Amino acid sequence: MPIELSARIAFLKKIHLFYGLDDDELAGLAELMDEYPVPKDGVVVKQDSPADSFYMIYGGSVRIIRKQDGKEIQLARLVKNDYFGEMALVSNRRRSATVTALEDTSLLILSRDDFKKLFREHPDLQYNLEVAVKSRQLARQLRFKWLRPDEVVYFLARKHLVALYPKILGPLVLLIVPMFFGYAYFSIFSHPIVATAALISFFAVLIWSGWLLLDWSNDYYVVTNERVVWLEKVIGIYDSRQESPLNMVVSVGVEVNQIGRFLDYGHVIVRTFVGRIDFSTVNHPKQAAKMVEEFWERTRQAAVATEKEAMKDAIRSRLGIPIPPKPQPASSQPTSSLPKQSGAAFLKLLGSNTLKLRYETGESVIYRKHWVVLFLNSWMPLLGVFASFGVFLSRLYQLYFDPENTFVSFATGVVVDVPAFIILGVMTLFLGWFAYRFIDWSNDVFEVTSDQIIDIDRTPLGTETRNSAQLENILGTKYERRGLLGNLFNFGHVYITVGGNKMTFEDVMDPASVQSDIDRRRDARVVKKNQSAAAAERDRMAEWLVTYHHNAEEFKKQQEENKRNQQNGSA
Questions:
Q1: What is the Cα Rg of the chain in Å?
Q2: Fold of 1-139
Q3: Which among 142, 328, 454, 542 is least surrounded, fewest beta carbons within 10 Å?
């Protein structure tokens, strides 16, 4: 059945690429599009084929795969209201990937000439296209490891260059130093020390400038089909990822000053139930905000559609009508398993989880503080153990070449070398001190179960403190890696906001993965609880509707009889 013009216009209004067009312009665009049905497993475009069209998914889903070095790499899985094919048209090159339908799919196609004409006649749309194309290019370049299977990056940007300019002033001012030494070498005092000072100061300025440039380029703002993310990283010092699921977003706003209006940058404020995520100094802020709003709205519409369909199934079940089978989700790339920790063979030999920083027991995942924390807390007893052991070996060496003294003698009773045994006693004390530190480190664990998070602090022969929170009460998460050691050995804190309080998983290895574990389990828990609550409410509503359905005729007869009685009474 052909897609009506009104339906096409309503469809185009939901796509950020066409933000700024009025209804008449959208109608003109809708008339230019051709409808193209694709069966399941049908190929829409092939890699390296000429680019002659722009595609929008009116219904269904597709998979984008690139063949590289003999392997197939899934770049994205796109669904209704998504689009593809614009990158090849913009860059005037062949298709970089193959697109295949994962189910029966309906596409709307715009020809190459009409596509270019549209953006030529409406220059304001160029910003929408620029934001989308740059986001996809950057996403393919970076390919974040923390993305979940079938999670698609729709918006990805760095800060505007204007955020770099104030920081670069320092190195620019310090250029005076190598310039001064260079002038002194050629005009005043031609000595190798002066030339060396000029070169060293010049390279120092270059290194500082390069570090500032890398620091600027490592901050990203991300919007996927599941969440809003702010990545912030200061090389060697700080690493953070703050995120919120799209269903937790409350509003999206834009703040732009006079300079920002002129240079087209500003702040996009994403407010959530737990606070806000600021896309600070981002390029094309209005277009960026529109993209956040679009995918936020998609999440809400998907939730409403799911609820309606579930309500229909509940009524069918109550009426004894067979429930039609649901379409199976299209297959996608398999979820990669978590990498095994190094030293697994040794840990298996121990037969316990004593040294593991992350391990699973049943449905629970347990984390410990990083080994670096153990070392920092126990370096003194360790130093004492090694020092006393060295002194003990030295004493044994002396006794070996001294025939009059032995470590232990039984010739005239039990005679021991007192200095050696004193050293052994000192070493035992240091070993006990280290054992206490080790047990204290091993007893502090952070646990994520299927329904809650738990922070357990237990001191040897002392008290135990246990804090827990339900997963569904988590409002937001954030991780930080601070300092040289944190970045070098990849450990840090994960902050979990629960109501008005915060829980902290301190000094855990790979805090980004820990955050993802918590978020993934929280989402699963929330979905499960919402499904249970919604199912109970649906059953209650369905019972009412079915009761009415079964008694509708009786109610109608009673209503008619009541009307007749009223008429007879009035007569």
A1: 34
A2: Jelly Rolls (2.60.120)
A3: 328
Backbone angles phi, psi at 86, to 5 degrees: -75, -30
Nearest CA-CA partner of 247 in 303, 200, 193 = 303
Q: Report the b/e string of 419-454 with b at 16+ CB within 10 A.
A: ebeebbebbeebbebbeebbebbbebbbbbbeebbb
Classify the C-alpha dihedral 234-238-239-240 as positive or negative: negative
> Burial level of 62, CB count in 10 A (0-12/13-18/19+)?
buried
Rounded to 5°, the CA angle 400-402-404 comes to 125
Packing angle of the helix pair 165-174, 176-187 (nearest 10 deg) = 20
Q: How confident is the model at residue 335, as a pLDDT?
A: 39
SS3 365: strand
- Kindly state the tokens that stand for 79: 């669904």
Whether pLDDT at 429 is above 90: yes
H helices of 256-350, in order, are 258-263, 285-319, 344-350
- Residues 9-52: tens digit of each pLDDT: 999 988 888 988 898 999 999 999 999 999 999 999 999 999 89
Q: 3-class SS at 137? A: helix
pLDDT in tens, 412-423: 666 667 788 888
- Give the torsion sign (CA, 312, 313, 318, 321): positive
d(Cα 227, Cα 153) in Å, to the nearest integer?
A: 9
- Please give the C-alpha separations between residue 71 and each of 62, 96, 335, 491, in angstroms, as whole numbers: 19, 14, 17, 33
- Sorted by where each begins, the domain ranges of the chain are 1-139, 163-216, 370-443
Task: Provide the residue type at 556 as one letter.
Answer: K
The DSSP secondary-structure symbol of 450 reads S
Please check whether residue 280 is in contact with residue 251, taking contact to mean a CB–CB distance below 8 angstroms. no
Q: Is the pTM of this model over 0.70?
A: no
